Amino acid sequence: MSYTIVKVPQGGEKISIQNGDLQVPQHPIIPFVEGDGTGRDIWRASKRVFDAAIQKAYQGARQVQWMEVYAGEKAYTSFHSWLPDETVQAFREFLVGIKGPLTTPIGGGIRSLNVALRKALDLYVCQRPVRYFNGVPSPVKNPEYVDMVVFRENTEDIYAGIEFEDGTPESKRFKDLLQEHFPAEYKKIRFPATTGLGIKPVSKEGTTRLVRAAIHWALENKRRSVTLVHKGNIMKYTEGSFRNWGYEVAEAEFGDRVYTWAQWEKTREQAGEETANQEQDTALKDGKLLIKDVIADIVFQQTITRAREFDVIATMNLNGDYLSDALAAQVGGIGIAPGGNINYTSGHAVFEATHGTAPKYADKDMVNPGSVILSGEMMFRYMGWNKAADLIIKGMEGAIAAKTVTYDFHRLMEDATKLKCSEFGEAVIQHMDD
Ligand code: NAP
User: Fold this and answer.
1) Which CATH class is domain 139-158+203-330?
2) Closest atom of ligand 1 to CA, residue 354
3) Is 280 a pocket residue for ligand 1 (Cβ < 6 Å)?
4) Whose CA is nearest to atom 34 of ligand 1?
5) CATH architecture entry for 1-124+336-434
6) Can you tell me the distance from the alpha carbon of 256 to that of 247, in angstroms, rounded to the nearest whole number?
7) What average pLDDT does the chain have?
């Protein structure tokens, strides 16, 4: 593919995938979108951190060839497109990339640039690690108990965008169809004359690939459990099926490496609760991964009151959206919450800040770059560059523990030193040598 607006760096190579394994050259070309608003400051600080970590880890043997691609306001101003085809093509061709926050265009065309990119590359996992850094101001008593990784399904659910606005011809046609073919269901609508409608597709394929990715990741990273979060008691054939299909894939594909609560239930019915408990205890002592499930409403309470019982979480799109932000609040909020949108089958991945562009702080060199820095950390770990990733974590831990932080943490901490966005990046680099 040739590019006219994107400049492909000379001397770099593409990341590729072979038989499911990522092939990462020593000088990979990585596309990045700096992002709108505060994205510019954040990207500048983050890139310095990334390059420093790689240099310290590999002493020049490895180096990223950064390749700027365009989306959002910068793309619209320069190329009259919010998301130029070349940008999607670059993420497709070079496999792994990173982006800052983007302004959501108001009115017409694209609903959200992030969603458009996820759809184009079928990035079916939104992976959000939630962990605590010592010293970060937190609203809970024991934020250090929080060490979870949310696998949120990224392509289905209410987010598929099948909606009918009340009063439109489409809405009327849809309601007529419902009334004619599904009269019993139509009668369930409380105020049919003034109702907007949405459809919630949840498939076996979509569920299976998400849960498979979560279990695979949990096993690879020696985690203790995967919890399926759903509202299956109410939405039986979408959320309830998610739970059932989740247990099915766990048992069918991961066999004796996992122990499921579905198995516990079967044993309890056949041999009683004590036997089921013994079976579970033995399985966990043998190092098996526990696959369990919990209803979506109670999970918000339990992840606060019994945070240590949660590890990897696999859930659908809407639950995952709410839950990952709520969990992030326990450990310092969206200023430092990273994320990755990943297709674990094709290898495509776009890592990104989870907050928005915070336009009131744009170009003030002020906000916390932690979210993009930690998204980069995730990206390097995904690429197998663990030494660089470890140095980034070490630098973040050191900078925060030394109470040298940006305004958002500073206002909540005692005796802290307030740093600019760029200064915080430098502090992270310095603490890599601690
Ligand atoms: P926002 O940009 O996330 O900002 C909301 C608030 O979050 C800020 O006022 C600030 O709080 C805090 N915040 C955000 N980034 C921070 C950082 N790096 N460091 C410290 N604090 C940070 O949400 P918004 O104002 O609702 O949205 C603005 C634009 O971003 C919209 O166009 C929206 O569509 C877009 N957006 C993009 C993405 C994305 O690209 N992933 C995600 C969400 C929203 P305080 O003022 O209290 O300090």
Assistant:
1) alpha beta
2) 41
3) no
4) 104
5) 3-Layer(aba) Sandwich (3.40)
6) 13
7) 95
